[in-house]
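BUG: 3D viewer hangs when loading the predicted structure for this chain

Environment: internal workstation, default settings.
Expected: structure renders.
Actual: progress bar stalls at 90%.

Input used:
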Amino acid sequence: MTTNHRIAGIDLGSKMAGTTVIALHNPLQLFASQKKQDADAFILKTLAANQITKVYLDAPLSLPGIYRGLPNHQDYFYRQGDRMLRAMSPMFLGGLTARAIKLKDQLNAQGIQVFEVYPGPLAKMWELPALGYKKQKVNIAAVCNALRSKLPFSMPDLEAIPDWHHVDALLALAIAYRHEAGESQAYGTPQEGIIWV
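Structure tokens produced before the viewer hung:
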């Protein structure tokens, strides 16, 4: 992929749980937050240090349209994109959704574009569930081996991928590559929020 942008794929986890992972490209690098460390501050610091200009975040970046008075939006729980992808409700995710929207606003204020992505459907498209995607940790090796032929970048060594959060960050980065190449699929509406796969 040739791009003028420095891009990142992020799997956003709980704020203090050490489950947030950032995947950067060119060269490929993985950064994970630590337990009892503020994941949002970690994201802002890591993106700034690496001069990232586009972020592809695995977390809801908007609320259902009814909360913003969008016409013809009556669903209190799901956005159109959530329904299309059978994704979790942003309302159910609550605090994670609020943190993601705040991060988006902070990054937008710095001139960084933020896109919502959902790795799960890409994993299905690439038939990763048959290999135990997001089941036991022992399946990470098989999933990563399958990803070697799918990802548009070189996979890191298996030791660098200790959990499914790292796998999802790599998939978020893969969606970023797909988006940059004009190959990603959009779900939802621009008014309510697009989810990219």
